[in-house]
C-alpha cells in the first residue's frame, strides 16, 4: 500500500515556508534601521530570498525523484536551520543577503517536496481538496506570523525574529525525522533515474497549458507577495501605526481569505463552473488594483486622505487575495497530472517558473521602493493583475 504523508505534517511544512517571508517582511523596517546600510536592504533581501528559493526548487525537486522525498527533506531543512542561525548573528549587510539566499534555498524543500509527497499520496479532486484545506491554513499564517513578529519587535528585536525561524526549522526537522514516510517507491525512483532532466524540461516547455498555469500562478503569487512586502512600510512607516495594530488588521484579511477557501472546497465539486468563477474573481482583483491606482494620485499621509489610501490599499489587498486563494488550489491540483512518476522534477520546473516570475516582481518592487512611490507601486500591480487575467484566459 502506498504510504501517505500525514495531513498535519503537510500543514506544518506549509506553515514554515509560508511564514518565513512574512515574518521577514514585518521585521525588515527594523532591520534596515539597525544595520543602516545605504541600500534598500529589506527589499533586496526579499529579492535574494525568492532567487534562493527558485534555485532550491530546481535542485531539491530533481534530487527528491532520485534520492527520495524523506532524505531530501531532511537535508533542506538542516540548511534552513543553519542559515537562520547565521542571520541571527550577522551584521554585515552583504553577508545578510547571502545568508537570506541560503535560508530560502533550504526552506524551498518544504515547498517542493511537500507538493511532491502530496501528489504521490493524493490525486484528482482529493488533491485539490488537500490544497484547498492547505489554503485555509495559509489564511491564518499572515495573522499569526505578523502578530508574533509584531510582539517580538516591540519586546525584543528583529534578530529574535530570525531566531524564531530557526526554532520552527528545528521543530519541523524533528517531525520529519520521526513521521515523514518515503512516498516514492524504489521502482519509481529507478525509472526516474533513467529519464534525463532535460527530457522532462523539453516535454514541459512544449506543454502550452502548463506554461500558462505556471505564469498565471507566478503573477498571482508575485502580487500577493508584493502586498505582503509593501504593507509594513505603508502602515508601520508611513502611517506609523503600532506593529500589534498592524497584526490585528490582518484578522480582516484572514476572514476574507477563509471565505475564499471554503468557497473553493465547494467549487471543487463544480468543475464545469470553477474556471469561470476564478476568471471573474481575477477581474475583481484588477478592479481593486485600479482603485488603489486612482487613490494613489491623491496620496497624503494625513487624515482624511491618508485614511482613504489605507482603505484603498486594504481593498486591493483583499480582492487580490480572494482571487489568489481561489486560483492556486485549482492550478496546483490540475497542472501536473500528466507528469505522474516525475512529480519532483516536474514540480521543480513548474515552481521554478513561477518563482522566477515572483523574483522579477519583487525586484521591480524593490526598484519602485527606492523613491517610495505608492503611485508607481499601484501602476505595477495593476499591470500585473491585468496580465494575470490574460494568461488565465488562455487556459479556459
Walk me through what this model shows.
- By secondary structure, this protein is mainly α.
- It has helices at 7-35, 41-67, 69-89, 93-121, 124-155, 158-179, 186-194, 197-205, 208-238, 243-267, 271-296, 305-334, 343-369, 374-393.
- The chain contains 14 helices and no strands.
- The longest helix is centred in the middle third of the chain and has 32 residues, at 124-155.
- The chain starts with 6 loop residues before the first helix and ends with a helix.
- The mean pLDDT is 79.
Q: In summary, what is this structure?
A:
This protein has helices spanning 7-35, 41-67, 69-89, 93-121, 124-155, 158-179, 186-194, 197-205, 208-238, 243-267, 271-296, 305-334, 343-369, 374-393. It is mostly helical and 396 residues long.
Task: Write the CATH fold name.
Answer: Growth Hormone, Chain: A
Largest sheet: none
**Top-tier CATH class:** Mainly Alpha
Series of H and E elements: HHHHHHHHHHHHHH
Q: Pick out the low-confidence regions.
A: none
Strand and helix layout:
Layout: H1 7-35, H2 41-67, H3 69-89, H4 93-121, H5 124-155, H6 158-179, H7 186-194, H8 197-205, H9 208-238, H10 243-267, H11 271-296, H12 305-334, H13 343-369, H14 374-393
Helix pairs in contact: 1-2, 1-4, 1-5, 1-6, 1-9, 2-3, 2-4, 2-13, 3-4, 3-6, 4-13, 5-10, 5-12, 8-13, 9-12, 9-13, 9-14, 10-12, 11-12, 11-14, 13-14
What key phrases describe this protein's structure?
396 residues; mainly alpha; Growth Hormone, Chain: A; 14 helices; globular; MFS_dom; MFS_trans_sf; transport; membrane; MFS
Amino acid at each position: 500500500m502506498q504510504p501517505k504523508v500525514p495531513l498535519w505534517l503537510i500543514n506544518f511544512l506549509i506553515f514554515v515556508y509560508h511564514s518565513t517571508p512574512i515574518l521577514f517582511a514585518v521585521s525588515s523596517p527594523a532591520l534596515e534601521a539597525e544595520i543602516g546600510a545605504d541600500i534598500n536592504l529589506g527589499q533586496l533581501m526579499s529579492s535574494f530570498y525568492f532567487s534562493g528559493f527558485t534555485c532550491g526548487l530546481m535542485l531539491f525537486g530533481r534530487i527528491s525523484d532520485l534520492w527520495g522525498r524523506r532524505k531530501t527533506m531532511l537535508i533542506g531543512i538542516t540548511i534552513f536551520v543553519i542559515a537562520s542561525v547565521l542571520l541571527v548573528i550577522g551584521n554585515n549587510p552583504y553577508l545578510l543577503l547571502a545568508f537570506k539566499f541560503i535560508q530560502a534555498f533550504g526552506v524551498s524543500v518544504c515547498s517542493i517536496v511537500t507538493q511532491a509527497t502530496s501528489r504521490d499520496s493524493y490525486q484528482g479532486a482529493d488533491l485539490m481538496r488537500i490544497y484547498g484545506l492547505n489554503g485555509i491554513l495559509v489564511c491564518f499564517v499572515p495573522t499569526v506570523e505578523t502578530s508574533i513578529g509584531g510582539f517580538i519587535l516591540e519586546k525584543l528585536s528583529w534578530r529574535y525574529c530570525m531566531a524564531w525561524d530557526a526554532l520552527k526549522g528545528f521543530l519541523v526537522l524533528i517531525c520529519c525525522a520521526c513521521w515523514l514516510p518515503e512516498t516514492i517507491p524504489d521502482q519509481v525512483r529507478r525509472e526516474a533515474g533513467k529519464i534525463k532532466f532535460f527530457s522532462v524540461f523539453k516535454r514541459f516547455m512544449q506543454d502550452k497549458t502548463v506554461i500558462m498555469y505556471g505564469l498565471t500562478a507566478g503573477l498571482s503569487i508575485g502580487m500577493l507577495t508584493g502586498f505582503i512586502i509593501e504593507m509594513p512600510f505603508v502602515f508601520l512607516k508611513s502611517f506609523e501605526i503600532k506593529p500589534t495594530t498592524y497584526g490585528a488588521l490582518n484578522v480582516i484579511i484572514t476572514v476574507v481569505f477563509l471565505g475564499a477557501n471554503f468557497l473553493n472546497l465547494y467549487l471543487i465539486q463544480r468543475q464545469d463552473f470553477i474556471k469561470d468563477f476564478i476568471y471573474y474573481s481575477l477581474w475583481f482583483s484588477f478592479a481593486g488594483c485600479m482603485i488603489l491606482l486612482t487613490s494613489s494620485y491623491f496620496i497624503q499621509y494625513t487624515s482624511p486622505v491618508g485614511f482613504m489610501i489605507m482603505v484603498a490599499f486594504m481593498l486591493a489587498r483583499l480582492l487580490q487575495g480572494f482571487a489568489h486563494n481561489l486560483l492556486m488550489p485549482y492550478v496546483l491540483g490540475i497542472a501536473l497530472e500528466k507528469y505522474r512518476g516525475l512529480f519532483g522534477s516536474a514540480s521543480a520546473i513548474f515552481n521554478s517558473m513561477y518563482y522566477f516570475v515572483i523574483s522579477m516582481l519583487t525586484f521591480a518592487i524593490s526598484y519602485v521602493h527606492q523613491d517610495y512611490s505608492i503611485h508607481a507601486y499601484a501602476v505595477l500591480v495593476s499591470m500585473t493583475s491585468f496580465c494575470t487575467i490574460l494568461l488565465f484566459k488562455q487556459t479556459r
